[in-house]
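Morning. Coffee machine broken again, so started the prediction first thing and wrote up yesterday's gels while waiting. Chain of 157 residues, entered below exactly as on the submission form.
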Amino acid sequence: MRSLLLLFLLALSSVSRAQQVFVYEGRDPLWSELTLNIQNGHLMPGHTELWSDAFLSVQENRIYRGFSTRFFDLLYTVRESKVYPGDSSFRSDIMYSIKNGQIYLGNSDMLLDLLFTFKNGYLHSGQGNSVFDIVLTIEGAPSEAELFAILLYMEKL
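Came back before lunch.
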């Protein structure tokens, strides 16, 4: 009976771990220098696990201020890999686009508008061909909305 309970607890902890994302500045992920963590869509500083300390919250494709999912706290919406302010859906309001792991300014996919490349857990500036281009190290698999929320929180966008 104890072994069954232990297996259940281990499985439960691995599921909750799978929903977490850890963000470090630079290319060396040192646990002591954890910059940001995401748990169930809540972006929190460092090792904090109190959801009330969340700077941003992501629910589905929407990014909210603080620990909220109220319409009045809606900051951005991600639709079809494009970031819109608030609940807008006008093409003229597109702020950023993502295509094949590359993040562009506005509704563009031109090389001149390329801001970042996200691949293999690293966020590179520009095309990101070198280890010296690494801006952030991200452990876990953030959704597109979480990736944009990370960049907005870290003031990279």
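DSSP finds two helices and twelve strands in the chain. Going to sketch it on the whiteboard this afternoon.
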